[in-house]
Amino acid sequence: MSVEPQPSDYVELQFGPRWTYISCVRKFVAGFFMIGLADKERAEQISLAASELLENAVKYASEEETSLKISISKSAGEVDLCVSNAVEPHQLNVFRREFALATAGDPETTYLMRMRDAAKTEGTTRLGLVRIRYEAGANLRLETTNGRVSVHAIFAMEAV
Amino acid sequence: MTNERPLSPFSVDEVQVVPTRDEGVLRVALSGCVEMRNPGEVFNAFWADVDAEAVSQGIRRVEVDLRSVGFMNSSGIMTLVRWVMRVVEQDGGALYKVLFRYDPGVTWQSTNMPVLARLAPEVVTLSDSG
User: What is the pTM of this model?
Assistant: First the structure.
């Protein structure tokens, strides 16, 4: 039996930002796409993006709610994985700057550069977004509305 | 060579770490998934201990077997990066080499191991076979 994702397929999860949920969601997303796409590498890439975005959301969310939505568009040939959470206004500008830096330049070059920089400090690595671009091959998009930040990781699919 | 100050095996969350020494080679086998909130709390200290052991015992090669690690978050990867960069920056040049054994069929390994090798080509070599 094969389960083909339909044009309007989506998965939506809302939960309190607890670290212990992240691994569970990563495994669920990987399993979901393994069944739908029968492509282990793509499934692992999408689940990696879910994990890294949720880690950021749990670390920086200002309120007890994080949401993850995965939309599968057959017509556009893409999967849109979106994680959103509330943030404090002062964190919003910090995040915008981080996002701009993470999405600039060639993904591999940026990943290597960020690794070198992060190795010099013991603090937060901020490697997640750069890793999603390089390792998962996703395009990233940022939306900020009403004190919420939403990060989209968009995957082109050959046969959704 | 006697093992005067052995590193001990340990488990943390879903991760098992087993260091062994054999014929002047220090081997570290990891298994499980590295996805705790702050892997650096455990692994920065562990890799520092590996470094200290290798330097003090005159070990020329450390082999890290990651083939049974199903997933590693970016904070976990950074613990490997910090360790490798520490080896690169040792006084007088790297005192030992690091060989990563990885599984090319596991996505996080097949994408990140080549990056580690590009980051520190003078120290890191890779093996993607059994």
Answer: 0.90
